[in-house]
Amino acid sequence: MRKRGKYVILSLVFLVLGFMISYSYQFTKWHSANHISNRQWTNEYQYRRMLIEQEQLNRDLQKELFEKQKKVRKIEEKFANEEQILFNLVEDVEKLRMYTGKIAVKGKGVEVTLADASYVPTEENANNYIVHESHVFKVVNELLISGASAVAINGQRLSKDSYISCNGPVITVDGNQFPAPFVITAIGNPDVLYPALNIAGGVRDQLIEDNIVVKMAKKDEIVLDPIIHSEQNA
After folding, report:
1. What are the tens digits of pLDDT across the range 70-101?
2. How many C-alpha atoms does 185 have within 13 Å on its Cβ side?
3. How far apart are CA 76 and CA 74, in angstroms?
4. What is the largest CA-CA distance in the chain?
5. Is 26 exposed, middle or buried (0-12, 13-18, 19+ CB in 10 A)?
6. Which of the four, 2, 26, 50, 191, has the lowest number of CB atoms within 10 Å?
7. CA torsion 94→95→100→101, rounded to 10°?
């Protein structure tokens, strides 16, 4: 009986000791797991906060970038407008120089040749069969009205101050005398200038009616030198 009692007591001691060991192990495990969990949560919280702050910073930077891009576009538009204005001014200056004969010009156009009649009846007045300044004026005026940007007579470039006079079979252009035939060249759209001269009852028909020999041709390239004023004309 004593031995049995002893075994019972030892069994109870071992049982309690085992329970205590098991409890201590479970408690240590739970505490360790709970400690790790709290640390992970703290780290995750910090990471999340950093991520949110970084995202906010990115949004602010992106907004600032959009504002700067908007300013850059406005500056580019301003420069583009100024460049276009400058280009237009340069283009206008070139056109004015071309119209005033300050620079040489080249382009498509037409060539009109006026020649005296090849046959003059003996009983007729010879003046009725030669080219006069009025005939030249008709051609020049029609070309200018039709959009010619530059006109020359026998290579003599015309300007706003040009004058043409007739002295028998010779025509004087800005002090320079030219005999017939008179070659009038004009730079402009040949598809406009040529039909303007050939219109029914127009310049060409009037010249032919005045016994003038008229030849006309479209030209792919006409070169007119700038006007050189002589000391007499200056």
Report:
1. 888 888 888 777 777 777 777 666 666 666 66
2. 17
3. 5
4. 182
5. exposed
6. 2
7. 60
Neighbours of 224 (CB within 10 A): 24
CB contact at 8 A, 169 and 130 = yes
Residues 6+ apart with CB under 8 A from 143: 110, 112, 151, 184, 186, 188, 193, 196, 197
Say whether 230 sits in a helix, a strand or coil: coil
**Chain CA centroid to CA 182, Å:** 41
Closest to 191 measured CA to CA, from 109, 134, 100: 109
Could you identify the residue written with the tokens 């006026």? 114
CB crowding 146-158: b at 16 or more within 10 Å, else e? bebbbbbbbebbb
Q: What is this structure's pTM?
A: 0.58
Instruction: Quote the tokens at residue 226.
Output: 């700038």
